[in-house]
Design a protein that fits this description.
The structure holds two protein chains of two kinds.
Chain A (H helix, E strand, L loop, with lengths): L2 H16 L8 H9 L4 E4 L8 H9 L3 E5 L3 H12 L6 E4 L5 H12 L5 E4 L7 H10 L1 E6 L19 H7 L5 E5 L4 H11 L6 E3 L7 E7 L3 H14 L4 E4 L3 H14 L4 E4 L5 H12 L5 E4 L14 E4 L6 H8 L9 E7 L3 H12 L3 H10 L5 E3 L13 H10 L3 E6 L3 E6 L8 H11 L1 H19 L4 H8 L40 H8 L10
Parallel strand pairs in A: 1-6, 1-7, 2-4, 2-5, 3-4, 5-6, 8-13, 9-11, 9-12, 10-11, 12-13
Antiparallel strand pairs in A: 14-16, 15-16
Helix pairs in contact in A: 1-3, 2-3, 5-6, 13-17, 14-16, 15-16
Chain B lengths: L2 H20 L9 H8 L4 H9 L14 H13 L3 E3 L11 E3 L1 H14 L1 H5 L6 H25 L11 H10 L3 H19 L4 H10 L10 H8 L3 H21 L23 H11 L4 H8 L3 H14 L11 H14 L4 H8 L5 H21 L1
Classes of the chains: A alpha/beta, B mainly alpha.
Amino acid sequence: MQKETLDLRLGDLLKRHFGYSSFRPGQWEIIERILRGENVLGLMATGGGKSVTYQLPALYLPGTAVVVSPLISLMTDQVQQLRGKRKIPAAYINSTMEPAETRERLFEISRGAYKLIYVSPEKLQNSAVQKALVRAGVSMLAIDEAHCISQWGHDFRTDYLRLPQVVQSLGSPPVLAVTATATPGVKAEICDLFDIKQENVITQPLNRENIAIDVILAESEADRRQMVKKSIDELQGPGIVYCSTRQTVELLVAEYQLSGKKSVHGYHGGMSSMERMVVQTQFLRGELDAIIATNAFGMGIDKSDIRFVLHYHFPPSLEAYAQEIGRVGRDGKAGYAGLYYVPEDRLIHTHLQEKEYPTTEQALRFLQGLSQAGTKPISELAMHDIPEEMAALLFFYAELAGIVSDVAAGREEYRYELSDASQMGNLAEKASQMIEAMEKPKWLKRQKLLEMLRWLEGNECYRMRLNRYFGELDHTSSAACCSHCGLDRSAYLDKSGSRTERTGKNAWNLRKALEKLLPNKKGGSIF
Amino acid sequence: MSSSTLHDREWAFIRSLTITGMLPLAGERTVQALYYILRGRKANQTLQDVHLYSLYPYYRMFPRLLKEDWEKIVYKLQEESLLIPMQRAESGRKPSFVLTEKALQIASESEREYNFSYWFEPFTAADIAEQIDLFWLRLHLIVQTVSHLLEGDLSFQPIVQEKRTQRWVKECLADKERRARWTEGLAQELFCSMSPLSESVQEMIFQRFSGVSQSGLTLSQLSLRKREAPAYIHMQIRCGLARMIRTIQDNRAEFPLLSALLKNEGGKDPRLTESASLTYVLAKQGSSIEQIANRRGIKPGTVEDHLVEIALRCPEWDGSRYLSAELAEEIVKISERLGTSRLRLIKDQLGPGVSYLQIRLALARKKGGEEDAKRDA
């Protein structure tokens, strides 16, 4: 097809399904290569329009596009968005589905009912899933969060490493690996695994020129808390305040609510999923000035007018930092990222990193608790004195050590096959083997933390050094650069002085309240 | 009034609540027993405790309560000289605890303070906890969905992420005709089922709903607005939902839509844990414990646990194959005479011919029967 006609067709699809009139930097370059059948690595900044790079080709190409995503919540969000606003037939397959539902969906897939299928890496290993996809004809394979294949390998399943094989079983469709954060080393690894040529690595500029980077040294915990509370009061919202622990979130929220002027809410993994969704909804609807959160908040949040991100604690890596401040100002308007640096906070991170991994004793107790039956209720782990959050990690390393195979995580339990090896060698030996295998990722995390500290302590432009870490030389800024180069904090203050309005208090009337929530469109009273 | 008093109020409420719940457990069970009850653990020991000591309102009141938070509560109770752990335990048992005079004082004042007997009234069986969970998830999602349906905008983020609930709502609204029934009738049924509640509770439940016109409030937001302890509000809402469930159950004909929220899917017995309900199916077919264990690939001990659960919750079950009516009566008598439900003490009186399973079944049966009588009255 002529380039002009292709331009027109794609532009039309972009407008019709996504509502955009032009591509953002990098998008066109990626899409055009995929349509030519090339394997591509797309390095897209958070909020840079990553999903368009596979959703658009999916629409254009005949057959069904497959998107591999490690996060079930992202999967469901995107599918919902595609089916709702974007009117694109999409569906997902993951471990939360019942067998009957999966069978039905596979049948629909095989008859080509969908343009896009989101699938967890683990489900993509399943031969029935592969068969259905092959029957539909796979137009392309997109791998979201592609850095998972190396950087945080242990956070996810071994299945990510098996993806290159899967590509072949699916008839070697073009592969698009996308990620927001990749250091040069990770980039090279991805290119190697998926056979991506250098000219097909498309880097969207990481530099976010509208975000001012501020690092503020705080004398003490009390000093910092005072400053953060003041900032929440004064800064132009909406914003996010990141803390490293749930306790800090709760403490800061409680304290802020005593004297603060703005409406804020806490958000962390200890809250029920309903509460978290309510808070998120309020934030998206502009009903909250700030969310005080752990890093559990933010993934998949599509809000373009976030004006500030504050870091109460510094994050454990520059990757995390770039991702978190990247949520500011996606609308292109000026935004502010303020980090309150208390050097002692490194202890929080070393402690958290220690706690994340099991001790040899825990690993042993875990192995002893595995049974021939091949299921393990997550709730049972507590009885072996193992935190539930550790389950995924333990199963991953048990699989790596050849003790279990075919691990599948359900909502309440893990299913697995106990291998013969589990009966041979003694378990204590296996346990220390597992612990040994954890040394490398642990070491990596310590290095990341050191990089973060080096960045905080460094005495050169923060923006330049952040970008350089990711291999980017550009460090221009459109508003202000950083606190090293000088910035005017007053530019980011809330000038209106107004706060998010809360609904006024009326006398309670159940009938009226229900009529407002569930209005009768046919006119007249519903009663 | 400042929020620091809100913090104090939360503790005052939690203190009264835990002491009241610990009253029957003192000297009998460990201090952890109430924790398992509040978390809603499905283990048999916990369910048995709930029945034996009639702690239904407490069951699953805080399913997300962390062990460390519970330990903080216990620590504070000790610090305020309300609870004293017993140093030594009788052979083979974990040490229990005693409540001090001061604690008993608080317990007797708590009724006036918090009106527990009013809030606890609808909680007459352990299964109400699970019903509330199911009912609330479905209610919340159907309200949100219908609200958006009425606006003709279905691209919204469901607050309830639970897959089973989402499937259930989808099924409810699968075709035009059903959609019409829900969009036209939901508000009216909500009005009828909520109006018997106190205005304050009506408002709390209503404000938690999400829809086009409101995002819904979190518990802590409700607490800030009402200036009441979050846990106290949580308890009132639970009670409100329990009352709604009772109202709907008693007048199913008047609530054709909302009564669907109570039904359970897949033919599983809602009174039992999932695994126990599978055992029940086999037990009804007359299989022995060993046969059930073999067929299901579980341990015979687990099957026994299931049978006790069934005896507790399913009065129609004929358990005579495991326990004759005469023996059951004898066990109950001994238990009453000794004034204890402790298996070992009872077994010592009966000799080796009687199994622990039989004693547990007898006690469970007795308890289950009392519950039915209470409900029928």
